[in-house]
């Protein structure tokens, strides 16, 4: 497989379509600097999927499109196609010819094509994965990449090894598996949290179900009594209602005449308002446009500020990096000084060692001489004894000679016994020393085992202590948060309960009437206690109800009169009363229907207006019986988002009252109430509902607090049992015991060795004495006669023999002392040698520390360069943003001018509208006077209707049945108060049960089923986690095996090729970081040409670096050849000799790999099979020419 053709159109300097045909072998590309040679390399790299514009020497990807010249227009598209011969099937494609095409347009859009069919970048990347041909593979090598390959950037170096080993797909699978594992563990944690919550929920629902049972029993009794009570009460109220309808009809007819006149005026007014609406709409659009421009200006200003802050941060980082470099340099100097100290000590020890070795040699020489002398003396002594024995034989007839001989024998026997006793004592001493040594070594092994056990115990205790301390910190924070929250809730409960009990916020008169019961025959309620509203609406609803919040709702006009009388008698001020009629509105004729239709239409339009949130009536939560009452009070009240929206809508819809979420109010009359008001928790309306919600929340928080405190107590108790000091002290005691045992072992080893040596010496003497003794005893019979004759001569001979014997013993003792001195010298030599080896190891470690420090310094220098580049980029970006900000501000000023013109027209129309509205207002005043008269009549009807509706609604809501209405003859004697008291007692008993969850049984079963389902999910996730871990382990094993096999092969080839490019015997190697994952370990390149010993590879010359990189590249090719290789001026640093070596090795590899070489070197040109020349006949436009060498190549340019 090889690259057969390259087609370029509109890419960089190649404006015209250029078709380059390649054959296997070596192809050279030459030309002057700046003519576009490297653009050929960029085109190939770009077509293979390169995504970094900086690699292509461009700021952004669109810049690769031909940008035009003085005579040529810029092109709108760039296209490059690679035609690859796939006859060996190395690419996973069924085609023998594979065409890869990439296009880019100035709009930023790009396309990828595979065999002229659209595809994805992922398809291209997958096609070339593990083939050595990708955009980031080792098929394209530039001169600057030589530095990258040999630099300390391990990642760039590993890419080539991983590509050659084919482990990229395994690393991708591992990365995906690890991501999936993280997701599974996250799901598992989430499921465990949910199970914990559901378990608490199940326990709570079980308790709630028991309370629901008792509640149902009380409800059954209450239903029976209250249904009869309601039926009798309804019969009484129906009699009162029928008398009031006749009065209302008469008054309503008088008001209808005024309505017709108002309708005529309003028709004219609506026409003008529609015109004004159109103008207002235009004005609103302009203001919205101004707002939008203002928002853009704000964002632009904010972006400038953010960029300035980032630049300050980068400046700070630059100072920090420089300071860190200085600190590292100081560390390097200190480590170097340590190395010098170690070397000086080694020199001292070496000198002492040399002296000891000389002394040892001298002692050994003296020992040999003395041994020789001792042997001579022994021989002389033996000879003399033989002569003495001869005399004994000659003087055997002499008794004195016999006696003298016996004396000699007795002396030798005594000497023999003495030596044997001495030897026995030394043997016993050696045995005892050996026994002591054996016991001590057992004690040492046992103590070391105890130390290891104690250290393990200490590590586990420390780990557990840290875990418990972290857990306690977390639990105490949760406890504090829970206490604060519970305290806050209880504080709110107390505060709100006091407000309710003391009727805070209500008038003095209202408080007095609510505290006393004798003035009313029925129920009495304060409006502020009749409903609730969501928190976000509380301020708005409170403001809307402010004038009616003190209203007391009563059953009849008689109760009103009695209440007023009570207020006057007690001088308690005033109070507001309300009783409503349930009468439905009767038809008002065609005009009334039309007005109703227009009003509904206006309300619908208002609901769609900007700023509208809700109708106040819709935001109130209350019982059905109270809804008509609230409808009359706040029917025309609207909630808006802001006061500005309220003012705008009020100007357009003057018949409505607008209240904001912050509690400000705009009335139809134009009056505005605004300013500071109480917070949502201090409002009067909805207090009881808020109190119920807070009381319901307390048990759950108290339960959570108790659980947290239990966990804290458990953790504190466990922590109190962990005693690290006791374990540490035990380890110290054991270490001291080890040191003591070591000292005793050394002492007994010395004594044992000394005793064995002494025993061996005595054994030699015993043997000598025994031999002599036996000889003398054999001769005693022969020498008896000679002993008598030559007594004096024998005596002299005996004295001489004794002298010789003493001299011999003295020499023997001196020889033993010399042996002891020799042994001491040998021990000292070994000790000094061990100290030297330790120092040499320290030097090696220090040198490695210096290398690490230098690497960190280099990293910080690159960080400084990166930060400086970002700083410069941000400065340029801020300049562009400030220009954009100025343009936005100018646009906003133009819009403001247009707004003013429309606003002036709006004001003119409003003057006319105000005049007509004034006429309508006068007519409505007349209508309102008649309406007040009707309202007084309706008050009584509404109150009766409200009471009847309340009873019916209460019955429906409480029991789900319609109350029975019938006639009773005994209404006058029926004890309504007594029955009401009985009903109240039953309700109070039921209320004392607290909040009841009627769905507790159903929810309990549902939550229990859910808990079992979640537990099943947890089991599934646990199995999935185990499977993923097993998969990741298998991937790691496979990838590591592939990588290590490939690495070892590349290493062997690298050493071989390096020595071919340099000299035999040069040192070269590849090493992996020790004790690290092979898939992540750093790869170290060793290159030391003969005669040089560089500390780092960066100290090599440019040519040596290039040859080293070439050796590594072709070592990879020998393991996994790339189908083609592009070399961009990498021969530039090489001299002629090295160029010849370079071209020879290129020629050797060209049998399996196609080479395309960009060069300026003539020797390299001579080595190519074909040569392309790049020229620039027209400035900015590259053109291709060819030169024929080994075979003709077809070129069309």
List its traits.
1197 residues; Rossmann fold; 7-stranded antiparallel beta sheet; disordered C terminus
How does this model look, in words?
Among the domains are: about 190 residues, P-loop containing nucleotide triphosphate hydrolases (Rossmann fold, 3-Layer(aba) Sandwich); about 90 residues; about 120 residues; about 160 residues, 2-Layer Sandwich (Alpha-Beta Plaits). α5 runs parallel beside α18, α6 packs antiparallel against α18 and α7 packs antiparallel against α16. The protein contains 23 helices and 25 strands. The C terminus is likely disordered. β5 and β6 form a beta hairpin. It is an alpha+beta fold and about 1200 residues long. The two termini are about 25 Å apart. A 7-stranded antiparallel sheet has the order 7-6-5-4-1-2-25.
Number of H/I helices: 23
CATH topology (level 3) name of the domain at 2-137 and 1131-1136 and 1148-1196: Rossmann fold
Structural class: alpha+beta
Radius of gyration: 56 Å
Poorly predicted spans: 581-591, 1190-1197
What is the CA–CA distance across the termini? 25 Å
The CATH superfamily of the domain at 2-137 and 1131-1136 and 1148-1196 turns out to be P-loop containing nucleotide triphosphate hydrolases
Task: Describe what is shown at a glance.
Among the domains are: 2-137 and 1131-1136 and 1148-1196, Rossmann fold (3-Layer(aba) Sandwich); 172-222 and 995-1035; 415-499 and 722-759; 523-683, Alpha-Beta Plaits, CATH 3.30.70.1620. By secondary structure, the chain is of the alpha+beta class. The chain is 68% helix and 9% strand.
